[in-house]
Design brief:
two-stranded antiparallel sheet, eight-stranded parallel β-barrel, 11 helices, 326 residues, TIM Barrel, 39% helix, globular, alpha/beta, binds ligand PBG, 12 strands
């Protein structure tokens, strides 16, 4: 056979494959999302996310220590707030003695080197379940920013290293940068949920926090899954407004957006492998239909190949354990 180019030569053994491998997954790339709720000695399983728990603060601290010991550089924390502390203006979100700031302080006191990323959004605290202030069925943009500003300052005072606005209000990155700077928090970073889509893959997360919108959907603020040029507009705005890291969310169904960000963003790109993506792989492997470890590692690699610098994933702890084994 007269075949000159034989790509299989570079695949013929594990060692040649190691030499020519273009992307790698490292523990350094991982960020573990965690859920916290009030109480003591609680590790409450989330039925739609087997293996993931709502932790009381004491248990969360233990979990963070394990995560830190595995070499994972960062965690992002989400609070489950009891219904009676929710209201239409999310006031609990900037209560300096509330669950969330208390937990942030505790983690930073005990594990100062672990990067703590906070969630800036009203939905866990909002009796309407939306990421913004609701008036006559409409989500108000600028009124929401003021609340997000108070929330961000409360989190920065409690020791947040990076704040991550996940609300998708217009102008929030610039507004939050200004507010942080005016209070002296010039070194608190902003990881922006730049291209956050109105996705159906957030279902298990909303179960975890009981944060589903009480009416309607999030399509007037989160992006239409059909659009990619619009994601580049969001990228341009977030860069102008001072984002330190830009993120695409969800992950797997939006790898093309990750690639586009990789090509156009001068700042690091994060991807959020969301709750529904976790649930799919977990459920299929619990049924014996997929090899869990191999599928998860392939998914992680796909994020790196697409161009992500870091991955928020509920698989982070397991991935780190596997990587540390070899
Ligand atoms: C809301 C928020 C959501 C997620 C992170 N922050 C859900 C939503 O927009 O309704 C989803 C994360 C996941 O599904 O893992 N501010």
């Amino acid at each position: 056979m007269d075949i000159i180019r034989r790509p299989r030569r570079n695949r013929k053994s594990e060692n040649i494959r190691r030499l020519v491998r273009e992307s790698n997954v490292r523990v350094d790339d991982l960020i573990m999302p965690l859920f916290v709720k009030e109480g003591n000695s609680i590790r409450e399983p989330i039925p739609s996310m087997p293996g993931i728990f709502r932790f009381s603060p004491d248990e969360l601290l233990k979990e963070c220590k394990e995560i830190y010991q595995l070499g994972i550089p960062a965690v992002v924390i989400f609070p489950a707030i009891p219904e009676e502390k929710k209201d239409p203006l999310a006031k609990e979100s900037y209560n300096p003695n509330g669950l969330y700031p208390t937990v942030l302080k505790m983690i930073k006191d005990h594990i100062p080197e672990l990067i703590v990323i906070t969630d800036v959004a009203m939905d866990p605290y909002n009796s309407d379940g939306h990421d913004g202030v609701v008036k006559n069925g409409e989500i108000l943009n600028d009124e929401t920013l003021e609340i997000l500003g108070k929330m961000a300052i409360t989190q920065a005072k409690a020791g947040a290293d990076i704040i991550a606005p996940s609300d998708m209000m217009d102008g929030r990155v610039g507004y939050l940068r200004k507010v942080l700077d005016s209070e002296g928090f010039i070194n608190v970073g902003i990881l922006s949920y730049t291209a956050k889509y109105a996705s159906s893959f957030y279902g298990p997360f909303r179960d975890a926090l009981d944060s589903a919108p009480r009416f309607g959907d999030k399509k007037t603020y989160q992006m239409d899954p059909a659009n990619i040029r619009e994601a580049l507009l969001e990228l341009e705005l977030d860069l102008e407004e001072g984002a330190d890291i830009v993120m695409v969310k969800p992950g797997l169904p939006y790898l093309d957006v990750v690639r586009e960000f990789f090509q156009h963003s001068p700042v690091p790109v994060a991807v959020y492998n969301v709750s529904g993506e976790y649930a799919m792989v977990k459920a299929a492997s619990l049924n014996g239909w997929l090899d869990y470890k191999k599928c998860v590692m392939e998914i992680m690699l796909s994020f790196k190949r697409a161009g992500a610098d870091m991955i928020l994933t509920y698989h982070a702890k397991e991935v780190a354990q596997w990587l540390n084994e070899v």
